[in-house]
């Protein structure tokens, strides 16, 4: 989809469709009011017949509205004006795009971006960027593996968003460009997540990283093979890979957009391309969803794609730690003790707690990058889904300012995260009779004890952990990867770009809500 911005009156747009909002009780938005006036009150006449009350999500397509230059007008219900918040804004845009997609319009000018959205700093930049991201999210399809491609007739090619004044054209254009880049990063993460484990193997992820690296002179890629891991002493990672015929890969992507020598932000992604649980095997119900256990790795690739597309002036390192977790005659067994790259020994009491095992060696490996901050993303615990559901990722870490920045980036991008405590008291649950630590901490506080485990490998730098088990994919009828947490990471990185002064960064220090 092609996105752009424009200022000017709706009745003067020579386009296939103009999109305007209507609030509950048939209250016209400013743009709808202008159309109404231009057409001599025909719009309000039409609404009086009762076809659109203005409830959130309703749409009504009107053809040939008198004295306007557009072929159609799409009215979009926005709910009560007083309650028009971020969620309802996204819903309105999503419904509008879906409805537009079913018309014959190739192009539309959408004025929803001129509505006032409740909340701090939801300005033109935010509204246009969210609109672009929401549009791409709504139009996403994954039919690569179907022999009959989607039969929807989809002529819509171009979406133009209205901005309230010419002064805001530049900021609107930047928002459209950045929104499109974030959407493309999320799209990549989503595709990789949706690919089944027989296609998306560790080697496939490594190839995907190589492809991404080829797209920019600023990107370098290196892939550590099993032999390299053995030489280094990555006993925890290797213990997970033992049960699989697919060799593990540790992929390092280095994006150098910042000044030479500037410390990098390091993103580490869990890339278990299929998690059967290993010998501690999972029940078979919904086990197919464990193909999504590489969504952390996909998120790293998506975030790096955003860096490349926007040429962000930062140094960013992406680390993907990829393996399958399968049962086998040679697989790790409950009770096995292994030595991690850090030298610490681990008793593997449950082979299904494999994510922390692969991550701990990757996290130790990160020390060599002299990082400014390390953020790992992992579909790490079912307990996180129990605690936070599907709406927020879990956030834990050892550096309050880093956690604060991620919380803010989540709030601004809509890809939210929520902090859980990483108190020392929880560390006791990892005690082992036979090794330095066990890889599981019992039933209580499963997300926290998983992070406690990781914290023992991240003492040398600022670190945050995102447990994305609840947010990375949807189950049920609309099963599929979401592309999260790419928007959150992209926002975090954008906020780190000097002198950009995006609202999320300006909001720093302000009361959190
Ligand atoms: N990949 C899973 C976590 C998971 C499970 C995410 C279900 C989303 C839905 C992870 O490897 C795992 O199996 N974790 C165990 C840890 C337990 C053995 C301590 C879990 O959550 O049950
Ligand atoms: Mn597992
Ligand atoms: Zn897993």
Would you kindly provide a brief summary of this structure?
The chain contains 15 helices and 20 strands. It has helices at 30-38, 42-48, 86-101, 124-139, 169-194, 202-214, 226-232, 235-241, 295-310, 355-365, 382-388, 400-413, 446-455, 486-495, 503-506; strands at residues 2-6, 18-23, 27-28, 59-63, 72-77, 107-110, 158-162, 219-224, 249-256, 265-275, 315-325, 336-339, 345-348, 373-378, 393-397, 417-419, 437-438, 463-467, 473-474, 480-481.
Strands, helices and their partners?
Elements: E1 2-6, E2 18-23, E3 27-28, H1 30-38, H2 42-48, E4 59-63, E5 72-77, H3 86-101, E6 107-110, H4 124-139, E7 158-162, H5 169-194, H6 202-214, E8 219-224, H7 226-232, H8 235-241, E9 249-256, E10 265-275, H9 295-310, E11 315-325, E12 336-339, E13 345-348, H10 355-365, E14 373-378, H11 382-388, E15 393-397, H12 400-413, E16 417-419, E17 437-438, H13 446-455, E18 463-467, E19 473-474, E20 480-481, H14 486-495, H15 503-506
Helix pairs in contact: 3-4, 4-5, 5-9, 6-9, 8-10, 9-14, 10-13, 12-14
Bound molecules: ligand BES, manganese (II) ion and zinc ion.
Manganese (II) ion is lined by residues 275, 277, 325, 352, 354.
Description of the structure:
The protein has 513 residues and is α/β, with parallel strands linked by helices. It folds into 2 domains: 2-168, 3-Layer(aba) Sandwich (Leucine Aminopeptidase, subunit E, domain 1); 183-498, Aminopeptidase, CATH 3.40.630.10. The chain is built from 15 helices and 20 strands. It has helices at residues 30-38, 42-48, 86-101, 124-139, 169-194, 202-214, 226-232, 235-241, 295-310, 355-365, 382-388, 400-413, 446-455, 486-495, 503-506; strands at residues 2-6, 18-23, 27-28, 59-63, 72-77, 107-110, 158-162, 219-224, 249-256, 265-275, 315-325, 336-339, 345-348, 373-378, 393-397, 417-419, 437-438, 463-467, 473-474, 480-481. It has an 8-stranded mixed β-sheet with strand order 8-9-11-10-14-18-15-16, sandwiched between helices. Strand 10 (265-275), helix 9 (295-310) and strand 11 form a beta-alpha-beta unit. Helix 3 (86-101) crosses helix 4 and helix 6 (202-214) packs parallel to helix 9 (295-310). The two termini are 34 Å apart. The model is unreliable at 505-513 (pLDDT under 50). The protein binds ligand BES, manganese (II) ion (MN) and zinc ion. The site of manganese (II) ion has 5 residues, from loops.
